[in-house]
Specification:
The complex is a heterodimer. Chain A is mostly helical. Helices cover 66% and strands 0% of the residues of chain A. In chain A, helix 2 (22-48) runs antiparallel to helix 3 (57-76). The longest helix of chain A is centred in the C-terminal third of the chain and has 32 residues, at 86-117. The chains are: A mainly alpha, B mainly alpha.
Chain lengths: 128, 209
């Protein structure tokens, strides 16, 4: 009851992640912090380990990073499937699309230029 | 019974009014959405720097390479600082949403100290690189590295200045709705920087091999 009275000035439309229950909110942040910390440690472990097939390490790192970004989005930035989050999620999806275009587009185009334009055996000094 | 009736006496579980008939969304939703759009455009800016780094990472011009330069323990400490500051920033959010001035100051100060520790560690790392002839002018790889890591560090430094300004506003104006809204935007900004840092430590520091 005291938690609800403390947040009575919050508008009735619930913002993402604003349930009003202090203990549940703290538990959510602590949970997110613990999961994110474990994923971070797993990333640093994966980067230095020899227990994993070495060509698979970058994929493992990417998976851990994307997972941790998701944890941050859900637990810290309160992106949820709730109705108030719909617009945020649409914008986020478009942002992810543009980021992917910029990053992978640049990598593909520059790798293509690199292989097609560099004289074999005579690497241009400016390319280095 | 507090779960079924909200502050305005509207039954929370009643059949909902269609979204088109509910009127404009409250300020907190609209402002947070606008700031969310800014953050996404900022992340797209970072994407350009990430792309430049990914393209140039192997172009070391005979100079030092990533694995020779990077100290993973140092980066792990930096990451721990930033992740903890993101957590205390969340606690800060819970404090100012409940208009609790003491905890707002307490967690604001903790967030500031952890963020400042991160910036100090990063400045010492970049300064060490410059001192050992591995500055941004040494190779394309190092230019891209300094641009990307420097841009992120600059964002964190701006965030620290913002946090100081918010502390001053809480002290002088108090936790009025305007200040709380600004604090909400700050919290979003700070969490977004931590997400960008995940990309930095994964691609730059752990990806170097």
């Amino acid at each position: 009851m005291d938690a609800t009275s403390a947040t009575s000035n919050v508008q009735p439309d619930e913002a993402p992640g604003e349930s009003g229950d202090l203990r549940a909110d703290i538990a959510k942040y602590v949970g997110g912090f613990v999961i994110a910390g474990l994923l971070t440690l797993a990333s640093f472990w994966a980067a230095g380990t020899t227990m994993v097939w070495q060509p698979g390490v970058p994929i493992l790192l990417a998976a851990l990073a994307i997972g941790q970004m998701g944890v941050h989005l859900v637990f810290f930035l309160h992106v949820s499937s709730g109705p108030e989050s719909t617009n945020n999620i649409l914008a986020l999806a478009f942002g992810v699309f543009v980021v992917a275009l910029v990053v992978f587009g640049s990598i593909v185009i520059m790798a293509n230029l690199d292989t097609n334009m560099m004289p074999i055996g005579h690497p241009m000094q400016t390319q280095r | 019974m507090s779960t079924t009736v909200t502050a305005d006496g509207i039954p929370a579980r009643a059949p909902k009014t269609p979204r088109s008939e509910r009127g404009p969304a409250p300020t907190r939703i609209v402002v947070s959405y606008g700031f969310w759009l800014f953050l996404l455009s900022d992340i797209i800016l970072f994407a350009a720097f990430f792309a430049a780094y990914a393209v140039l990472a192997k172009h070391t011009a005979g100079g030092p390479t990533g694995p020779q330069l990077f100290d993973r323990e140092h980066v792990l400490i930096e990451t721990a600082c930033l992740l903890s500051s993101s957590f205390t920033c969340g606690m800060l959010g819970l404090a100012f949403e409940r208009r609790h001035a003491l905890f707002t100051y307490l967690f604001g100060a903790t967030t500031f100290v952890l963020g400042a520790a991160f910036v100090a560690l990063e400045v010492s790392e970049l300064g060490h690189l410059i001192a050992t002839d591995a500055g941004p002018q040494r190779s394309a790889f190092l230019s891209a590295f300094f641009a990307l890591v420097g841009l992120h560090g600059l964002h964190v430094a701006v965030g620290l200045a913002w946090l100081l300004a918010m502390g001053a506003q809480v002290a002088t104006i108090g936790l009025v709705p305007l200040v709380v809204q600004r604090l909400r935007c700050f919290a979003l900004f700070w969490h977004a920087l931590d997400i960008v840092w995940i990309g930095v430590f994964t691609i730059v520091y752990l990806g170097a091999r």
